[in-house]
Design a protein that fits this description.
- With about 270 residues, this protein is α+β, with helices and mostly antiparallel strands.
- It has one domain: q2cbj1_9rhob like domain (Jelly Rolls, Sandwich), CATH 2.60.120.
- The protein contains nine helices and eleven strands.
- The strands form two sheets. Strands 1, 2, 3, 4, 5, 6, 9 and 11 form an eight-stranded mixed β-sheet that branches. Strands 8-7-10 form a three-stranded antiparallel β-sheet, with no helix packed on it.
- The protein binds 2-oxoglutaric acid (AKG).
- The site of 2-oxoglutaric acid has 9 residues, from strand 5 and strand 10.
- Keywords: Dioxygenase, Oxidoreductase.
Length: about 270
């Protein structure tokens, strides 16, 4: 009897997992498919608390200025200046474990609330790593998380993505699929995955928050040092401070007057 080793199919990593998933399973799914949805990571109570915290912020947030932002879409920039609702999630062990595994040294790049308004058309498909003009193929240097603050459906603008389109490929021909997920889910996706916000054909907005991480040797999309007031940053957990720019990348990228930036923050 042969050992059958060469003919055995390698089991595919899942793209949908439950909230008790481990880091290795998410990383395997990301490497194979470019995205993984962790369903119901947050319970209903937490989702409601986040929505309550964001409601007054959204009330004063203008709609977008171009096709990419979406003329009927509101974007909450400077998120960590405006709410404490994501402090623990940005440094959750599952999130950091996954981002550590793919990026090693990283920082928050573009933490943004995204409320796609009724009637909004689909956002152009794009890759989050495209803003950095580096030739393909390259190592993954962006990992994003999309936190669903209500059920994401094909109708209300669930993020559209092309499974397996990561790794430095040109824009794929096949149509994207909607990443439908129940409220409280978080979707991890690689910066090289082709995706975009979906069209919202319903009468209600679709609210999600992206916490995007980028390789720490790159410039973060948002300048957190100016976006988040220093006294706010000083009260944050140390790991979150680092992710918001008060950290160094080995050996010493990001120093301030020869010292670790956290020492400057602490005065
Ligand atoms: O809102 C979404 O579902 C995705 C938005 C997005 O990809 C972006 O703005 O870069």
């Amino acid at each position: 009897m042969g050992d059958g080793g060469s003919s055995q199919a390698v089991p595919s990593a899942p793209t949908r997992v439950g909230p008790d998933v481990d880091v290795a399973t998410v990383v395997a799914g990301l490497r194979e498919h470019g995205y993984v949805v962790v369903e119901r990571f947050l319970d209903d109570e937490r989702v409601a608390a986040i929505r309550d915290a964001l409601a007054p912020v959204l009330a004063t947030t203008p709609e977008g200025r171009n096709d990419f932002e979406g003329f009927a879409t509101k974007r909450i920039y400077a998120l960590f200046a405006k709410t404490r609702a994501f402090d623990d999630l940005a440094i959750h062990p599952l999130v950091l474990g996954v981002v550590d595994a793919i990026l090693e040294h990283h920082q928050l790049s573009a933490p943004t609330g995204i409320e796609i308004g009724p009637g909004s058309p689909a956002q152009p498909l794009h890759r989050d790593d495209q803003i950095y003009p580096l030739p393909d193929p390259h190592r993954e240097f962006v990992v994003n998380t999309m936190w669903a603050l209500e059920d994401f459906t094909a109708e209300n603008g669930a993020t559209l993505l092309v499974p397996g389109s990561h790794g430095g490929q040109p824009r794929p021909d096949e149509p994207p699929i909607p990443a439908e997920m129940p409220a409280g889910s978080v979707m991890f996706y690689l910066g090289s995955l082709w995706h975009g916000g979906g069209a919202n054909t319903t009468g209600a907005p679709r609210l999600g928050v992206i916490l995007e991480y980028a390789w720490a040797y790159l410039r973060a999309q948002e300048n957190h040092l100016l976006a988040v007031p220093r006294e706010v940053a000083a009260a944050l957990p140390p790991r979150l401070q680092e992710l918001l720019g008060y950290g160094i990348c080995p050996p010493f990228v990001g120093y301030v007057d020869g010292r670790h930036p956290r020492r400057v923050l602490q005065g």
